[in-house]
Amino acid sequence: MKTIIVIGNGMVGYKFCEKFVAKKGSENYKVLVFGEEPRPAYDRVHLSEYFENQDAKALELAPKEWYKENNIELIVNERVSDIHRASKKITTVKDRKFSYDYLVLATGSSAFVPPIKGVEKEGVFVYRTIEDLEGMLAYAAKLKDKKPNAKAAVLGGGLLGLEAGKAVMDMGLEPHIVEFAPKLMPRQLDSRSSQVLQLKLESIGLNIHLSKATNQILGEKAITGMEFGEDDMLEVDMLVVSAGIRPRDELGKSCNLEMGVRGGIVVNNKMQTSDKDIYAIGEVALYNQMIYGLVAPGYDMAGIAVNQILGEDSLMPEEIDMSTKLKLIGVDVASFGEPFMPASKGHSIIFENKTQYLYKRINVSLDGKSLLGGILVGDATDYSMLHQIYLNGMTIPEDPAQLILPAGEGGASFGDVMDLPDEAQICSCESVTKGQICGVIESGEATDLADVVGCTKAGTGCGGCKPMVKDLTEATLKSLGIEVKDTICEHFDLNRQDLYKIIQVKGYKKFNEVLDNHGNGGHGCELCKPVVASLMATINADTANEEYAIQDSNDRFLANIQRNGTYSIVPRIPGGEITPDKLIALGEIAKKYDLYTKVTGGVRIDLFGATLNQLPIIWKELIEHGFESGHAYGKSLRTVKTCVGSTWCRYGMDESVSFGIELENRYRGIRAPHKIKGGVSGCIRECAEARGKDFGLIAVEGGWNLYVGGNGGATPRHAELLAEQIDNETVIKYIDRYLMFYMRTAKPLQRTAAWQDRLEGGMDFLKEVIIEDKLGIVDDLEKEMQTLVNKFECEWTQAINNPEMMKRFSHFVNSEEEDDNLVFVPMREQKMPEPWK
Amino acid sequence: MEEVQKKYKTTKLKDVNFWFKAAPVNAFPKDGGACIKYKNLQIAVFNFERLNKWYATQNLSPEKQEMVLSRGMIGDYKGTPMIACPLHKKTFSLETGENLNGDLDPIAVYPVKIENDFVYVGFSE
Questions:
Q1: Option in B37, B72, B86 nearest A815 (CB)
Q2: Which residues of A, range 544-603, sit inside 8 Å of B by Cβ?
Q3: Which H or E element spans position A642?
């Protein structure tokens, strides 16, 4: 068995492993991977997202187990220090030796730090790894404690520099970008587009300083400023250096591989270095005298190296597509093909609108027949199509201006995705063609977008091609005559949203009215009955006591059915605050009825093992002690979890408990497509885990940050920021609107996270609806929510006071006896149902 | 098969030799069910008002041997009247007792008749 050693576990190193294990014949090799960072490979392209969620796991390309499952030995935290070519061995910093048959160098690059005087001062960082970011975060937090309006500068106005600019802005520091060149993103943009980008970035609060050569970093121990020239300086408290990259080529140099004049390990089109058993891929490889700092060429190189080692013939193309599209601080920026083209080669067509921060340029061949390249700033929706036209040499309209003019102003919707040739590469990171995407759908392997992504990996790299993958998927499904249906069940040709409108307009109160007037002639089922019940409860502000035979299992008896058909009882404890007397009352009731007692995940108390007959008796006692239904059984608000907040906590910024109680009491009882949970934390330490809830609040300087769409469950998700530093009144207004909008439009049993994910237009759209009232519906949403709030009634109190409603709480209709099939067994001083056999 | 399950056997109308007078019609919800006790048996009785029919089955869910079927929702699966178990929504034909969305053992079904606003369930002894 031969051994391959991969040095470097970054994005390209990982891609090599992924592509290798997917190949036939790879089982005959042992693969050993070394990474010097403490964690397995992660997505560096989306590094700035770490500032938003600080979730390193979310960036991970594959968990540690993946390597194990694929028989790859991954050794992290151990740098390789030497290569001994003659004996085909490597040594690590821990002085361990390993033999190889093939060596793959994927050491990537490091941030280039220019030799400026004082650059070693405290508060100067580079922007490359998660550890760098953690260092920055800690430093920024310390700074802000001392100086609330601290400033941070980024040295370098290129792609990464602007990303870093966003990062420091997210940390709450005043952001400055310092660039040596007279324009931003000098490699990708021409002067005019660069100006448009600059205007846009300035409008959102970035300070930009161009044509500045930094002479020295000022300050005693820590940085206090940057000096550009005499009397020209900028006071800053922190600096992030992002002035380019340098290949990590020390290993190549020390073992005498052929090197480029300015660094990089020279490779041929097989990705072989001057030693045929040593390959170099990614940002360490110098191919055609160039270092390619983009992920797509790096992935291609990984693929070539895999094929070469396995004896397949595939070569790196002569010309490499450096097209790129990204969202910088919310601004689309894209360039493709030849962005700057000399006038001798063709003509440029330019559309510019500085009032809307828009710039589009396309370069067309002299004969006007082909597209050579272009630049888009402000709106890159046309990028995928233009890029495809360029890559595939497709013919362009007679008037090429149509390609970039807004539709309706002479622009035409040119080019349907289905017109692309099958070999058109849709996802360049993963090299997925149109033919492959359509193929998995046509073969039946994939039936929706998620399947397509799963089967082909399209869209999992930089994500730029996602809209196109979606369009292709939908168009292919449509061409196969597959209607993407989301009707609730066989009894209705309607989805939940349609039914919502119908019930609202017609004012139906009974399931049969809805079924008879809008159903397919059947008799309903376990899917549509609870949906209609929930909708009528939402629209008519009713409790689950209405028409109990159509309610879902738990709603029918206002309790959670457990394993053996007994029920559990959860009274509401708003915000988790409870008096000792009420706690004693709960304990006494639990003891009296011999109920298994446990604190729930939502900080309430759950009493298990009540029979159907016992439910009303126990509830009567609970209500007498001042409790009410906790709706733990309903698709409705469960709890608003709180930390103790500023009333007691020495770190608290606001009264999280008081506000949590107010919110829980406001939204209690309302019926929604799925359960809803809330959380309120009194400071950013986030003890209430508010970002794991459907709506979550974190107290910050100047108000609350409101997050929406989080959940635990099978697919844990952090909530996303909807609004910052808002007061209590605004919080309530926004949550009212958000929940009501969700209740109106979600699918049955869809949590807010899944709903939010599938909202076309995503968070931006949601903000427009909730905050800017783009749809003109917020008044209605607020009114509808207020009606629900006003009409709240405890459904258990309602039930025990109504003899007709009480009839359902007996196991037999012809006997007072209880279920004789129940068997309990003891467990840790309490009881539990006999285990299922 | 479980010990409890052995007590429940589908009874055909022609084999009924005893009609048990269970409860008044209004003890059962419209388009829903409730449980009756007959000797040591638990029988779920359903008032399928939309079809103007009554059905009776064992109350025991064959999936996990719990007495819960009467608390489930009824309706139809492609035209077959059915009951959905409240625990995991396993559905059974109210006509034949067969499991419609899985391969569980069928449940026992019994004939029902209504006389003078009273519900009777038929057994063969």
A1: B37
A2: 548-550, 552-553, 556-557, 561, 563-565
A3: strand A637-642
User: A304: closest CA among A602, A47, A15, A608?
Assistant: A15
Asked if residues A363 and A347 have their Cβ atoms less than 8 Å apart, the reply is yes
Stretch A210-236: mean pLDDT: 92
Entry pTM: 0.56
Distance in angstroms (rounded) separating the CA atoms of residues A155 and A189: 18
The predicted model gives A272-277 an average pLDDT of: 95
Testing the interface with A: which of B3, B37, B59, B93 to mutate, by most A Cβ within 10 A? B37
Structure letter (DSSP) for residue B83: E
Note whether A563 contacts B66, CB cutoff 8 Å. Answer: yes
Q: Which two tokens stand for residue A146?
A: 């001392």
- Cβ atoms of residues B122 and B33 within 8 Å: no
What are A774-800's pLDDT values in tens digits? 899 999 999 999 999 999 999 999 999
Q: Is residue A820 less than 8 Å (CB to CB) from chain B?
A: yes
Instruction: Count the neighbouring beta carbons within 10 Å of the beta carbon of residue A522.
Output: 18
- Do B73 and A525 lie within an 8 Å CB cutoff? yes
Which is nearest to A777 in space by CA: A432, A424, A480, A501?
A501
**Residues A756, A717: contact at Cβ < 8 Å?**
no
CB distance A105 to A273 below 8 Å: yes
Taking a contact as any Cβ pair under 8 Å apart, which residues of chain B between 72 and 101 contact chain A? 72-79, 81-82, 84, 86-87, 89, 91
Continuous segment of H or E residues that includes residue A731: helix A728-745
Q: What residues of A are in contact with residue B100 (Cβ under 8 Å)?
A: none
Q: Is A834 on the interface with B (CB under 8 A)?
A: no
Say how many C-beta atoms besides its own lie within 10 A of residue A626's C-beta. Answer: 11
Kindly provide the ipTM of the predicted complex, given to two decimals: 0.93
Residue from A498, A560, A566, A555 nearest A529 by CA: A555
Number of H-type helices and E-type strands within chain B:
0, 12
What's the whole-number mean pLDDT along residues A641-649? 92
